[in-house]
Amino acid sequence: MNFDWNNAKAFLATAQQGSFSAAAKTLELTQPTVGRQVSALEKELNVALFERIGKKLHLTKAGQELLKRLAPMNEAAIQASLTALGHSEVIEGRVTIAASQIDALYRLPAIIALLRQQAPKIQIDVVVSNEVSDLQRGEADIAIRSFRPTQPELIAKKIRDIPVWLYGSRRYLSASKQYSLSAPPDFIGFDRSSMVSKQLSPIGWDLQPEHFPIATMFQPLHIELAKHHLGIIFLPEDVGEQHADLIKAFELMGTPLTLEMWLVCHQELRTNKRVKTVFECLARHL
């Protein structure tokens, strides 16, 4: 039986994302459109593919079986698309870069300005997230990451090691002399998990959740909060040096953390001239 592949893609996205709204965002469609496509597929197959339990969609048994059959077909379609893109010889078109908040705000603008001068026909999309983009599913063409990928389909170039220091405002740190290992200063973190505590435990600080009175996943806000004398933050050295309002904290203790920077791309796309142009420019200037 023939069925509309667009309907199948809507089903796959909904199954993977768990809702019509999330699937619509992934597919760049409206939520009603995705809902109609899934309903059309259910009508074509004469089965119910989802059931709603509370506010969430769950696959029925028929939906689970269909997912097993369609997922490999979708992967094959993605790989075929990547292969076709990889043989493109034209230095124009869109290239998507996945970058963290810090990379996007403090490292990419100057590089994108250079790219616009060197290759004005290349259109640059930047996906900004501290989450890892899935290059194999086409969420981005190139990603800047802090770790080396393990997937054999991806190629990676290590750019450099980045020292990460503690930073705070001069006013806040001038008062930090009263702090001790038993009475640490306030820290601004992504959350109140034990990750930061583990990084600083070799120094001798026994940090508890109460030592993180402010937490946010939006890292640029860390910088602004630190400028308002509200605590100490982790910041890459090259970014910290861009902010005259901030200085290194407890510098004599040494660098508490070092991060790697990797540039990652799907291997098929390295033969694509426009992606290769962007990749090489990023590698040179990052």
UniProtKB/TrEMBL annotation:
The keyword DNA-binding applies. Transmembrane segments: none annotated. Keywords: DNA-binding, Transcription, Transcription regulation. Residues 1-60 form the HTH lysR-type domain. Pfam families: HTH_1, LysR_substrate. InterPro entries: LysR_HTH_N, LysR_subst-bd, WH-like_DNA-bd_sf, WH_DNA-bd_sf. CDD domains: PBP2_LTTR_substrate. GO terms for molecular function: DNA-binding transcription factor activity; transcription cis-regulatory region binding. Belongs to the LysR transcriptional regulatory family. This is LysR family transcriptional regulator.
